[in-house]
Amino acid sequence: MTTDLHQEIRDRLALARHARRMGKLNARRFHVEQAAAARAELRNQPTGIESRVCEDIAARQRLGIAKYGVTVEQSPDDMLQHAYEEALDLAVYLKAEIQKRTP
Asked: What would the pLDDT profile of 46-98 be if each residue is shown by its tens digit?
């Protein structure tokens, strides 16, 4: 689960506490709805390995934006060529590991 999601849940709960203190809205109903929304969002989040892969993807996107100033979607580059070159690199890395592990 991502840190951003945890922060969003904390923000929602803080907002509900604030609404209750300020007497705005029906504070109990507001709090219950916010908590239900937070729980629903948690249920829809990936867990385990999938969660870590999602975190890795988000980290790579942040790195790419910092380095290139755009997302992959916004890039004018030929992504098919990039993907092919990455696949070639992957094949080399895999072969190197296979050779290291082969007696």
From this structure: 778 988 999 999 999 999 999 999 999 999 999 999 999 999 999 999 999 99
Task: Give domain limits for the chain.
Answer: 72-103
Distance CA 62, CA 3 (A): 14
Dist. CA 60–CA 3, nearest whole Å: 16
**Residue 50 and residue 2 in contact, taking contact as beta carbons nearer than 8 Å:** no
Instruction: Judge contact between 81 and 72, C-beta under 8 A.
Output: no
Helix (H, G, I), strand (E, B) or coil at 1: coil
Q: Whole-model pTM above 0.70?
A: no
Residue 92 CA to residue 90 CA, distance in Å, equals 5
